[in-house]
Structures are given as structure tokens and as C-alpha cells.
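Structure, all two chains, one model.
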Amino acid sequence: MLRKKNICWIVATSWIATATLWLSSPCSVIATQPEKTADRAADSFEQIDFFEKHVRPLLVNRCQKCHGPEKQWATLRLDSREGLLVGGESGPSIVPGRPEESEILRRIRHSDDEIRMPPPDHGEPLGADQIELLSHWIASGATWPTNAAPVVDHSVAQRNHWAFQPLKGVREFPGEGTSPISSAIDTMVFERLSSRSLEGSNRADNRTLFRRASYDLTGLPPTAGEVDSFCRDESPVAYEQLVDRLLASKAYGEQWGRHWLDVARYSDTKGYVYGREEKTFVHASLYRDWVIDSFNSNMPFDRFVLLQLAADQLVEANAPDLAAMGFLTTGRRFLGVTPDIMDDRIDVVARGLMGLTIACARCHDHKYDPIPTDDYYSLYGVFRNCTERLMPFERRAGIAAPTAEFLTELDNRQKLLRETSNVLRKETSDRNRARIADYLDAQRHLEKYPELGFDQILAKTDLLPAVVRLWQAYLSTDQARTDPIFSVWVSMAELSDEELRQTSGRVIQQLQERGTPVHPQILSACAEPFSSARDIADRYAKVFLDIDASWKTVGLDAEKQNLPAPLSLADPDHESLRQVLYGPRSPFFIPDEPIANIESLFDSDSLTAIWKLQNEVDRWLISQPESAPHALILTDRPYPVDSQIFRRGNPANKGRVVPRQFPGLLSSANRLPFENGSGRLELARGIVSPDNPLTARVWVNRVWMHHFGRGLVETPSDFGLRADPPSHPELLDWLASHLIADGWNTKNLHRGIMLSKTYQQASGGFVESDRLVAAINIDPNNRLLWRMNTRRLNFEQYRDTLISLAGQLDTSMGGRAVEMFPLGVTSMRRSIYGMVDRQFIPSVMRMFDFANPDLHIPKRSETTVPQQALFSLNHPFVAARSRAAAARLSAPTAETSSGTRVAELFKIILQRDPTALESTSAIAFLLSSETSAIDLKASAQSLAWSYGTCEVDEASGKSKGFVPLPYHTGTAWQGGGQWPDSVLGWAQITATGGHAGNDLAHAAVRRWTAYTRDTVKLSSEAIHDVDQGDGIRCFIISSRHGILKSATLKNSKQLMEIDSIVVEPGDTIDFVVDYNANLNNDQFLWSPLIKGTQAIAAGSSRDSAVDLWNAQVDFTGPLHIYLSPEEQLAQLLLLSNEVMFID
Amino acid sequence: MIHQQQPLPNLKTLCDSGQLLSRRDLLGRCGIGLGMLGLADVLHDSGELVSAASIDSGFDPLLVRAPHFAPKAKRVIHFFLNGGPSHVDTFDPKPMLTQYAGKPAPLSFTTERKTGEPFPSPFTFRKYGESGIEVSDLFARTAAHVDRMAVIRSMYAQVPNHEPSLMLMNCGDSVQPRPSVGSWVLYGLGTENQNLPGFVAMCPGGYPIKDTENWQAGFLPGALQGTFIDSQHTAIDRLIENIRSPHATSDMQRRQLDLLQSLNASHRSARIDNRLDARIHSFEMAFRMQMEATEAFDVSRETKQTLELYGSGVHAKQTLIARRLVERGVRYVQLWHGAGQPWDNHEQIETNLKKLAGELDQPIAALLSDLAQRGMLDDTLVIWGGEFGRTPTVELGGDGKAKAGRDHNHYGFTVWMAGGGIRGGTIHGATDDFGFKAVENPTSVHDLHATILHLMGFNHERLTYRYAGRDFRLTDVHGRVMHDIIA
């Protein structure tokens, strides 16, 4: 005993010296109580954690290759606690609690190479820290969790967890309501409330209900007029009619389409791509429009899902429904790394449609839900066996056909892509085939060939790592072991050169004796013993190269005799060899797929060449997405293969093969693998099968969430064991069953929900404070729905509301994405049509919790930060909406008072009258506010000038398309912070000159606007002072009189003077410069003077001395033009909580 | 009269007095929302069960929160040398390269491009400080502070490509969209100055490679993402979005806000929702932010002496701004070298590195002195590094000729940290004799992240966020704290 203690002490001391990870408690465990810890009943979380983190990886990596499931040297297995306890030929490997008596430690620590484990040819001895970890583990009782995951038993979870159970039968609710759904909701909600001594709140007032219904179904505010007439309508069916009208509006599809786009992690762009690739999707906006249309046409939800997963197999080859597959293909591209693209698809399908977090099983069995990692790779197999295709489809009615020129050009670009791609595919395959010896030899040096995701620049002379890996996969299948061609190779694969020399003859003999046939050509090539591994590769290669030569001869012969190209070799033995080189399953075969799917099979130069042509096609299509609509679909590959699991999610660490099949927890005991193609359609049908309890529950819950602010289940995309159970389980099941029975009719579901009393409750709860306090005490979070929840507008609703209240909403639908907050002209279209570039989400959108398009977002965050307020206070977009809202006020008359102005503005923005107090406050605000709308620092002359781009229309003599340059650097007006700007190019105006734009439509223009009637004299000198390029063209153009003067300059100057011209208020005089023939050195100096000769103060209060405008002196940055008091009032009303929140 | 607040409702009074405590109130008081489950311990202590709900309480994710244990560092300034600075030319001397110059290297690794023979550093290394750590002349001024630094010479990443390595270094995962280190820190700690962004990423001239992904919030709330500032600008409204109104004076805004808040207060009185209060509050904060941010970014308020200490140029300016920001409570500042990837030196190492290091050396040294002098270095963590290092061998062009530059190298590279809890004058780990690969104490990026979080007061395994059915953390399932570099 003494001796033992002594050793323990030494162990503990050395451990202190080396280990750095755990300091206090494990140490005392080792030193004082080695025996007691043998009791496993008390396996703590820390112990399990320690085992999983330090011990299991050690055993797996360093021991189990020889002592595990595959090999059991010395009859020892080290892959279970029992295996260690029973031990092998040397007796038990461990004695729990007694590291010093454990054989495993003795062997690991031994200094004799003959005895030490792992043996010298299996790598370095274990490090001191590793030994101590193992020793600590044994000392503390050798904890080995019976189940790696902390869940009890998957089958129990599968049997008991509410979400995985079949839908309960539908209870009948006759009720007096107009919809059976409403009756069911009210009965079940109010039953639960009364069981908790609660009752529902009163019906909300009409204005509130209108606003609530309008936002829920359209995402837009109602107008004051609509609200008024609804409030006056005493018909009992007025509300029902309102709901029906809103459901029928086109805006419904936009509102609910956007909800779906969150689920579908929608983006118009691919995310970060290498420079060679176009970053914008060709098809995304068409998918978005399909989603909107599908909601508006009330497509049954099961059909909606089926089409998004497998439209390619359900509709005609050119049907618009193909666009549905954007659901799978608008995810981030992850720089082309296949496992991540697959993961994204698995996740969006599993969580988005079924509320299953299957993606958790990518690296290990799901820790809580009955989802083994096999199920993940079953789905991986489905998506891995699909390739992308860009498919044209019929354009919408009313969209103009593309021009013949467009189609010809498209055809040319596609043809060039196809031809180049075919040539490079063939060249690359041929080059690879010629180097078969090298590819075979590379199998012995796999560490030199990194997996996907490790991008190397590859020359044509390099072996392609992806092809090396394809060979690896090809040679490691089960069939390869018995394959007549490769059985010899596989048998020899791990032998050293020395072993080869001694045993090669015997191996072949054994193969034949075992009944594994050897291909005759291979057999004869292997007649002599091998001298080295390279020798095997060379002899195999010779067999194949001979076959290749004869195949080429056959082809040439046929060509000479004008016969059709042969399809195979006549001799079946030869043909089987040829298949290895040319067959569709050959590792040398490069399938005819889009470059995105086969990138790794090319050298860098070929890859760039193909991408360049692909981009030419993509950009052409992006220029007219609607007239030549294309869908990016998935289509099944011709030879589906099952996937291997990736151990710990690592593609380099492949495990067993799993069949493509439906997740086990939703399958019966006799689950069968998918049979057709990739199995994608079967997967889709399984998802929408009435027997699948999840899909309908998940969809009903999403709809409910958007009506009530929170779901019956609070985690809308996780219905697993870690999710809270539904607040109203019976109701959830009822609604789900009814949805299925009702033909998956989503609009009926909305209608039923909205006609319920539950939905129509006031959000403020009860007026009587004792009732209110009682209710809050019982159910503070309103899970039982004794009132409606208040909701806050999301980013898009907020933006759309501002535009809408300003009376500026552009309700046109569909088409290319527009910039939401561009410099210059702002689009007034609904936010769903705003560009979602997942690489550059404008920070205002992020600040307002816009759904991150990189991830499936079941529910948006809802944060409140000052940056949101800064946007509302200071962004020009909001100021412009405030101005426009105030401009909606009717023209003042003699009777107009501040009070009527205030009342009218309240109507416009809040759709109600102000209270007396509000009215008084607002009037006081108007009267006390500053009236000066202009920054007094700016000179009056500065106001006359503006700076922009336009085009000189020489035919009409006018300048057209004036657009202000949006950005001021401090010294220059230009397109943006970068010069040249990506849109407006080089166009620039400075105090003294500027630069012409990139094309004739973007000539640089300095514009002077007259504010009174006058006769003015213009004097100026235009200068182009460089010799490079071909010079510039200068024009002086009057809006009233056309082109007054023009000149072409190249390294020269020209006086540009007009003695006298009459201007009326509002007339403009433009000083325009564009390039002469080419864009090259088109900077200029030109800074005119304008002198008024007979200024007439036509109703103007301005100083009549203001009669000289000097472009150089007057040049300014943005003028601070302040909001008027009414505009300020409009702005603050737009910012109010009453606008932002829905009762 | 206009400015008078409406009386608050009974209900809220009840809640405030503690008689009534809804979960939402409770969470609001703790300054966190329902989604912030990683910090749920506080709530468990109070007996409140937290369900797997998402953030829905209108909370402010930036409010100050306490970490797991007493932090050594309260704020971070991270010099990000984007492109991959060469370790063998800066902080990891390799005399062996001279011995092997012109001879075939006895070992080599696959990187993105092909490389040739060992390429000795054209720069001289000298010993500095009491620790005698060797640093090249490129960072001679910075090296004067070497006794404040822990130089980690055994970093390794996963692949030799910029994009995945930037993501790994900044967000802990090469490919999947995950929150950045700064976002995690902000999520854990909040920020001490509500009138400034809590996490700032400055880069002169535009975005680095991978753009805003480098400071993304991932699945965390959007407010936790880094605020990008193009530090080449000088005007405040070019530096911070919407910080000034082009259409109202401050007086006008004050009057607007007064009326707005009185309307909001009366609106609030009949409603049960704390989000209404949060939004009312945020407008007041925004109003103050307009003043404070302007002041914080204005380096002209520094003394002549300080300005001279930092030197001239955009790096001096952004480094000085960083100091002003952390001084005012900003939690995390990342200083990028410039748009694209300036430190991606495939060619002409000698001239390129001289120029780049010349831009940084003085500001870094100045910052360390300045922080120390102000007593802030003790709890400010300064980090220096890129996304990987470079090959000790010379890069070959397509023609097979040497280009006097180095290719990417993720097998071994250097990062150093100073200040906030760092044991100065320490070297952690080593690369092989050539500087190819980390061989002694190999340190993963996850280990670096675990250590940063540890210094900020977090057990990196417990700083988690529930998303998509599982608890995510910055270090995924990896990460070991480097205790030997902690004071």
C-alpha cells in the first residue's frame, strides 16, 4: 500500500509538471482516492467531457487501427470499456483507478521499441502529456459513457416526442363562426384560458383591426380614407369582407413572399466569389417573383414545396414553375466547396420545411434528436447526385419578347461556352489518361494532394488533386476488391516494396484460388514479380495505354472508312479496360455539367477560360432576366452513387456508405432506400406526405407566428427535443390536420385565423387594472393569448410604410432587383424588390435586423439600437419622405389654421385625428419652430447651380436625362467615394472644371437655373490641356433655346461666350462636356461667369444686387436645406412608436 | 407643457416596484434578451427558466454585461495585417535560410503556388529588451516594447488561401457564416459607451478581401456586427453613417424629439410592451451619439506631443482614433492595413515590406507607449497578425523563375499579443528550423480565440448562442487557452 501511494505521488507530481489543462480538482482525485473512483455510477459531466475530449480521440487515432473493429492484434480491442477491461493476450489493459497497474500505460511508456505501443512503424511514441491524460483517465475511474450523446435513447425520443407523433384526429367544431378554423381556434384558446381562470380581451377597435389586418396581409398601412369608411361601415360582414379584400390584393404575395424568402435564405448574389466568377445569380429574382405569384394564386402548400424541391420532374421542360427550384439554388456558394453547398441545402430543406435540425448531424449523431449522422449523409447522397442546370422557360404574359439581336448574341455566347468547354474537357481528360501511371502512383502519396477547399494554382503539367481523389474513391469501393482489373492493385496497395518483391506472385495465386478472377491482360502484365510500387503503377498503365492506343486506332479506321464512330471495343476484355479510361464512371470522365459543379477537374488556366465564357452568358441573361427567363434547377445525375459518411464532418475521413433514404425518425421500421435517380422527388413526396406530421405543423406554426408575433411553438424551425412544447398542442394538431384536409389551402388558414375572436382581441388587455394585473400574474408572457401581442414593423415594412405614407409607393411588381438606398434617385418600389447582395448588406438593413441571407432565418432578431434612430433622424431617405408627406397637405386657403394642418397631417400619417393635447402640442411646435429652411451660410448664388450628368441630344438640341451627381468629396461632385464610380464612371465637376463621363449618356454638366426673368450674358473659356486622347466636346445648352454654342477641344482652348440671352424663372443653362470619340484623358477646365443685365425682382425678395454668378466662387458641397416646420412635424410623426408598432 | 411626460401606467409602476416581474422585465433588467442563452447563468440563478425562444424583447444587445470571471482585458485593439505578413521577415528569425540559400530545401509543403529554394530574409534581426526576443529591423520601434509582448511563433491555419483563412482568423470557421470575434466579445460583454459603436473595423481606402464578412454578426443580432469605417476620410459624416443631419440643426432635432417623446409617452400609457420604452430611449441615445462620436473621431484635439508620437499618415491617424475610441469605452477595434490585401507579398519582399512596416511600426509603438502612459495597457489587449504567414522559400513565377517574394503559408506563422493580461517577453511555440511549419506547441486559431476570450473573462466553452437547434461558440469544438502567455 505504501508503495502504491508512493507511485501515485510520483504520477501526480509529473502530471503537475507537464499538464496545463486542469489544475486543482483532478489532481486531488489522483493523489488521494484512486480506489473509490472505480465506481462508475457517478460519472459526472466533467468526466464524460474529459473522456470525449482527450481520451477517445487518442484511442481512435493511435490505437484502434490495430485494436479496433477492423483488426484485433493480440486479440485486443480498445474501442469499448469492456474491451480494455477484458484485454488481450497480455491480460487486461486497464485497472480502473490504478494507472500504475494498467498494462496499457506500461506498454505506452516502455522504452523498448519491441514492447512499446504504438510500435515504431506506426508513428511517434505518445507524448508525455498524452500519457498523463490517459493515466488521469484511468486513475479517475476510466469513465466511458455508454452513449456518446447525452440523449437517453433515440427510439424512446422517436416514440414519445410530441412533434414526431402522428397528427391527432380532427375534433369537430360546428360553432357559429364563418369558418370552422375560427371556431376551432376560439374554442381551444378560450378553453385553455378559462382552465387558468383567465378570459379573453375585448375586440380591438375598428381602426386598430384594420391596421392589424392590413399589415398582416399586405405589410402596408391603410389610407385614412379606407380606415374612415371601414369605421363607418356597420355591416356585420364588413370585417370579413376586409379580410377577403386584403387576401385578394397583390400586396399579399409580396408580404408573405418575403416571409418565405427569410426561410429560403434568399439573396440576389452568390456571396464572395473569386474574381473569375460573376457574383450575381441569373435566376434569383425570377425565383422571388415565383414565390410572390404562388402566394397570390394560393398555390396549395404541398405543391409549393414539391415544386421547390423537384419541379424538374413535375413540370414541362420550359414551364415557369421551374423557377421554384431557386429555393435550393440561391444559397451561398461557399467558394464552390461542395460539402458546404450540400449542407446549406440539407439545412434549408430540413429546418425550413420540417423543423428538423438535421444539419446538427453533419459531424456526429444529433445530441438530442433521433437523427443519426447516417440520416444526414442519406440526404447528402440525394443532393450530391444532382447537378445544376440553367434552363430557359416561358416568359410571363405581357413581357415583351427578346429582340432577335438579343437571341443571336445569347446563342453565340452559349455556343462559344459549350464548344470551349467541350474542347477543354476532352483535352484535360486526354492529358489525364496519358498520365495514368502517375495517378496510380499518387495513391501512395495522398498526403501531397489536398482535399477540396485547398485551392492551389494548378498548371497543365500538374496532377489534379481532385482526380487523384477520384481515383482514391474508385479504388476504395467494395467492388474494387473483387474487380478483375483492380483486385491485384487493391491487394498490393499497402505492401512495402520489399514485401512486394517477395509476395506478389503469391498474392495473385491467392486471388485466383479465392475465386476472385483476374483480368487476363492484368494477369499477363503481372506475370513477373513486382520490383516496387511504382512498377505496379507502370505495368497497369501500360495495359491501359495499349488499350487506349487500340481504341484510337479503331476510331481512326472508322473515320477513314466514313463509318460512324465506334461506341465500344468488340472484345469484352478490352472493352472493360476501355471503360476504366472512358466510361461514365471513370475517374477521368469530366461530366458535361456547369463549370460551377466541375471546377476542381481543371487546371487553373482552363478553369479561368471556361468561367470567363460562362460569365459572358450570365451577364447577358442578367441584363434581361424577364424577357429571357432562366431557372437554375437541379437535375439528377445519370449514375447515382450513395455517399459515405464523413467522420466528424471531415471529408478526408470517410466512413461507411449510407443509402439515400428518408430520415429514420419519420419512417416506418421497414424503410426502403430511394429508387428513382437521386431520390430527390421521393424525398419531396415524403416531406409533403399526409403521414409526415412535421411539414403541416411547421407551416401552420409559421403562419400563426406572423399573425400573432410568436408561434404556438416558439422555435419555428426546431421542433426537436430541445424546443419548448407548443402552447396549444391540440390546436396546432387541429390546424395542421385541417390544412391537409383542406388541400393545404393557406389563404383559408389566414382567413380562419383572422376571423377568430382570438385574433381580433385588443392588445392592451383589460381596461380594469385589477383584471390586468391578475392576468399578467398568471400569464405574464401571454402564451395563452388573453390579448393580442403588439408587433413591431420589420425593416421592409418600415421602409415601405415610410414610402407609402409619403404617397410615393411604386406598386409595380416583379423584375430585376433595385438598389434600395442608392445615391441619387431612390427607387420607390417595395422593399422585397430591393437588391439583397449577401456580400454587401447595407448596414442600415443589418441594423434593422434584416434576415441574414447566409442562413435560414426562422424568426428575425428584434433589437433596438441608437443606429436605427440615427437613420430615422438623419438619413436623406427619411427626410425626403417627410417632405413628401408634408407635401400631401392640401393647399392652404384663407380658412386654414395651424390646427387644420396638424389634423390633416395626423390623418395622413396616423390615419386618425389628433387628441386635443396632441393638437395643442403640435401647433405649438409649428409656431415655435425655425422657419428658415435654408442654410444661411450658403450664398444665394450657390443655389442657382447644380451638378450632374446628362446626354446631349443633338437632334433636338436639348440636354436630356439630367441626374444630379450624388457625391461630394469636399472639392468635387462625382458618382461616389471611389473615382471612377462603378455606375457614373469618371463624370465629375469641380469648382474650375471636371471630367467627362464614361459614355455619351453621362456627359458632365454644370447647370445654372434662373430664378427671375432676366437677360444674361455668359462668358467663359473652356480648356482641354493634355495631348493624350482625342479631346472633348463642349456645349452650352439652354432649356429654352437649345444648343447655344459648341466646340471640340484637344489640347486647346476656346472662348465660349454669349452676349445676351433671355431667361424665364426655372429656365436652365447647361455647360456640358462629353468625350469626343473615346474615353481617354477627358478632363477639362471650364468655369463660366453669368451676368444678369436687367434683373427684375419678379416677386422675389432677393437683393437685386445679386446679378453675378461665378461658377468657381459659387461652387459648394451639399447645401443644408432644412426641413420646414411642417416637414419636421411630418418626420417626427413618421418616427413615432405609433407608426412603428402595430397593436 | 409639451415637454411634460405623461404619467406612466399602473402596470409599469407595478413592474418597476418589483411587485410584478414579467420575464421580459427581468431580462430587460439583466440587459439581455431571450436569445442570449449563453449568458443564461444569471437567469438560472434568479430561478428563471429560459426557453429556446429567439430574441424578441426589443432589448439592447449592447448594454454592459459581466463575463464569467474577472477579466484581464476589457477591450481589444487588433492590428490586422491583411494579406498574410511574413513571419520569417518580422518576428520569427531563421538563420538556417541563409545556410540553405541557393540549395534545395530539405523539406517543403504544398501551398497555393510553387516555390523554390530557401529565401533568407533581407532584414536584420536583433535582440530587444530584457527578454532578448529577436525582431527584425522592420519593426524596430515596436520591438522596443517586446517585453510587453507574447510572441506566438507556432500559429497554424487550415488552407493556404486568403478567403478561408480570413474567415477562420476573424470568425472561427473557414467556410460557414459565423459571428466574428468582435461580435462574440460584444455579445458577451456589451459595450461601455452607448453613444459609440461597440465594435469598429477601420480600413483605409475600402474593404479588405471578404469585405464585411470579416466583422459579421452571423446569426447573432445585426447590432453586434462591426461598424466599418473607411479611415482615409477626415469628415465625421464620411466616417460614421447618419451621424449628422443634412436637413436639421441640433436645436431643431431637440425640439422634434421633445414632441416625439411626448407623443410616444402618451402612446405608451395604454400599452403593455417594453419595446416601446426601448425605442423611446434609443432616440435619446442617438441624439447624444451625434455629439460624442464627432468628438471621439477628432484627433485634432490631441496634444502636439501625442500627434508627433504617432507620426503622420493614415495609419497614425487610425491608430490614434482607436486609442480615443477604447478610451471612451468602445470594446473592440480592428485596424486593417488597407483595401484588398497589402501584405500579400508574392514579389519583391524587400521593398514591399519596408514600405508596409514603415507605415505601421511607429503607430504601433506609439500606441503601446501611449496606452501604458495612460495606465490603459494593463487592461487593453493589443493583437498583431494576419490570416497566415508566408513560405520561407522563394515563390516561383509561371516561368519557374524566382520572384523575390513568398507564397502563402498556413502551416506556421506568428501572431503577437501585448497588454491586457499578457505575460510580456514570452515566446510561445516555434516553427521548424526553416519557418515552414509549427512544430513546438502548435497553436490553432481556435487556441488563439480561446485565449482572447479567456483574457476577456470568458470560458470559451460556455460563451454560447443557441441557433438552429444547437449551442454555437466561437471555438466550435476546439480551443485550448495558452496559459503560459498569461500573466
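Residues 1-58 of chain B have pLDDT under 50 and may be disordered.
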